Sequence to fold (254 residues):
Amino acid sequence: MKSNEIILEDFANPAHSWNALNDPVMGGQSSSTVSIKGGLGIFEGEVVDVSFLQAPGFITMRGEGDYADVSSCDTFRLTARASEPYEGYRISFGIKTVPGNRFARGFKANFLSPVGTDMVDIDIPFRDFTVRWDDKTGDPVKTCQEDEAYCPDIDTLKNMKSISIWGEGVDGKIKLEIDSIKAVGCTGKVSNPAPAPFTTIGGDSQGSATLSPLFLFGVASAAFFGAIMKGLFTSISHNYSSVNKSNNINPAAV
Fold:
């Protein structure tokens, strides 16, 4: 991993559960599947019109949970490849909503994925995302450039909580294979939320600590010395308390 990037998801070792959510929840007929195979997240399906809206619906690939802090970064990066040409790709993150939004939550931006066999880096600056987007089409109503109030906020960037890849507002079939999701253009300390490995002392790292005899002797000696000091302190305290009682002394006033 480069020093100026932070991994949000690596599908070779995914940290989140990814699922499909499609427009049948609102009466549409679009469909999609989400799977993880061969170290890739695979998003495949078709967007069709929602009859009562007379407009294309949506399909999504959604991953929820805690994400790394990317508040020091300036760009969202998707490393992916597409098997079908499609012009309705969007990506969103977060759960924030603002007045004027009905169902829309989070910050959303459009992106294009070239068709081919090679993985490509698709970079989307955070300034291209907006929280004020249209519920029906996914198109921006007011952009971050037009009003900074709709730009991604620090709290959301510290933990996105939800990331979704969309096919929305354009009819058509899609197949997107994703290698990883990152934030790039990061400054300062880069930290990913990964479990800390076991620390070994005097041994090899095998998932458990191996303690040297010298270390164990030191621990035992410290415990023995601590017990002696505790007994001595208890004895002194008892004697001091007895003296106080015989002379009617309030320790708090001494």
User: Anything to note?
Assistant: The longest helix spans residues 213-247. The radius of gyration is 28 Å.
